[in-house]
Amino acid sequence: MAHVDLNVALLGCGTVGSEVVRLLQQQSDDFAERCGARLNLIGIAVRDTAAPRAARVPRELLTEDAHALVRRADIVIELIGGLEPARTLMHEALAAGASVVTGNKALLATHGPELHEATAAADVDLYYEAAVAGAIPVVYALRESLAGDQVTSISGIVNGTTNYILDEMTTKGLTYEEALKAAQELGFAEADPSSDVDGYDAAAKIALMASIAFHSRVSIDDVATTGIRDVTAEQIAAASRDGYVIKLLATARRIAHPEPAITLEVAPTLVAQSHPLAAVAGAFNAVVTESDAAGRLMFYGQGAGGAPTASAVLSDVVAAAAKRVYGGHAPRELPYASLPVAPIEHSRGTFVVELTVTDAPGVLASIAQSFAARQVSIAQVRQDTLPDDASAAEEPRASRARLSIMTHTCTRGDIEAIGAELAENPHVLNVASLTPVEE
Ligand SMILES: NC(=O)C1=CN([C@@H]2O[C@H](COP(=O)(O)OP(=O)(O)OC[C@H]3O[C@@H](n4cnc5c(N)ncnc54)[C@H](O)[C@@H]3O)[C@@H](O)[C@H]2O)C=CC1
Ligand SMILES: N[C@@H](CC=O)C(=O)O
Ligand code: NA
Hints:
- The chain has helices at residues 15-26, 28-35, 66-70, 86-95, 105-122, 138-145, 160-171, 176-185, 194-197, 200-213, 233-241, 306-326, 363-373, 412-424, and strands at residues 4-11, 37-45, 62-63, 75-78, 99-102, 126-127, 151-157, 224-225, 244-255, 261-272, 284-291, 295-302, 348-358, 378-386, 400-407, 410-411, 428-438.
- By secondary structure, the protein is an alpha/beta fold.
- The protein folds into 3 domains: 4-135 and 306-337, Rossmann fold, CATH 3.40.50.720; 138-301, Dihydrodipicolinate Reductase, domain 2, CATH 3.30.360.10; 347-438, ACT domain (Alpha-Beta Plaits), CATH 3.30.70.
- The N and C termini lie far apart (54 Å).
- Keywords: Amino-acid biosynthesis, Methionine biosynthesis, NADP, Oxidoreductase, Sodium, Threonine biosynthesis.
C-alpha cells in the first residue's frame, strides 16, 4: 500500500524519549501499515547535542533548536517534562498545525485548559496516554471506553516510584532512602523525585483522570495531597499485623452532598490485604473505576519506565497519524459538567487514628468522648503497651500505650477535628497519624 509521509519531531531524549526512538526504528514498517503513513523522525531536540547517548539515537537528527524543529513537524512528541519550555513548545507546535503527543502530566494538570483550547483552535489533536499510569491505557478507557457510562469514582496506585519504595520497605525492610535510590536507578523517578515522594505526580494524574471522567476542569492544585515521607517502618509493620498494606492512593469521587461536586485526594492509605489494589507490587500501577452501568473495572500494568511509557506514546502517535491520514479527531476536552471541587473535609470514608497515650484509668473513655461528641462511631480499638518513656524526668514514669482506633464511615472534616481535639487532650502524648482506609 502507498503511504503518505508524516514528519515526526521528538522533544527530549531521556528515559522515555530514547525508547520512543527505538520503537520508531524497530517497528517503522508495522506503524506505516497501521496508520497509513510513514513516520519520518526528522529531528530530536535535546539540551546538549554533545552529551553521550545510546548508540541507536541517530546523532545527525539531534538539534538544540527545538523551536525551529516543531515548525517543521506534523506530529510533535513532547518528552522534556516540566512546565517550561514544554508549554511554549507545545503552543508553538499546535499553532503550526501539528498534532501533539505528550507524557507531561505536570504541565497538563497545571495548564491543561489553555492547551486544550489551543488544540481546538488549531483544529488538531492532543494525546496524552503516557501522562497517566504509563503503559496502562487508562486515558483511552476514560475518554472513549467509558464515554457511554457515568463514572462515580476513580482510585488507584498511579506512582511507580512511591509504590516501589513502600513495597521495598514492606517486603525487604529497606530504608526509605535506599528504596528511593533504587527507584531512581531504575528510571521510574521524576527528574525531581520530590514530585513522586510528596505525591504531586500522583496528584497530577488523578487531576487528569477526574477532568476526563467527570467532564470538569480539575487542576493539580485542587487535589489534597500528602506524600509518603512520613510513613514509618512502624506504621508499615502495624498495618501488616492488622491485615493491611500502606499504599499511596489517588482518589477522585463524585459526591452528591451538600451539592454535586468532586473530592480529590492523594494520601498514604491502609488498603485491606484482600483488596485488589493491595496486590499491586513494585513499580506497577493499577486504577480502579466505578461507574453506574459497568460497575467496577480494574486496569493494571507498568505505570512507569522507559519502554512501557514509550508504548503509550507510540499508541498515541499511531492514532494521531491515522487521523491525519484518514480524517477525524481525537476526543476533545468536554468540561460541560463543570463540577466544583469540594473541600476535602466533605469526603467520606473510614479512618484509623493512631495515638500515643498515657496508660491510666479513664484515658480511653476521655478519648472516646471526642469521637462521640462528633457522632463518629468507633469500629475497632487496638491497644499496645509501650515501654516507659526513658527520657521522662519524673519517677515513677507513666506507663504509655499506642492506640489504634478505626472508625465507621465519617467525614474527613470530623476526623481532622477529632485529631485536633485529641492533640489537646492531656492524656494524649502524640497524634501519630490519621490514615484513610480502603476495605
Ligand atoms: N520515566 C517514566 O517512567 C515516565 C515519564 N513520564 C513523563 O515523560 C516525560 C519525560 O520523562 P523522562 O524521559 O523520564 O525524563 P528524562 O529526564 O529522562 O528526560 C527528559 C529529557 O529532556 C531533556 N531536556 C530538558 N530540557 C530540554 C530542552 N529545553 N530541550 C530539549 N531537551 C530537553 C533532558 O536533558 C532529558 O534528557 C516527563 O513529562 C515525565 O513526567 C510519564 C510516564 C512515565
Ligand atoms: N515518576 C513516575 C513516572 C511515571 O509517570 C512514577 O514513578 O510513576
Ligand atoms: Na497510560
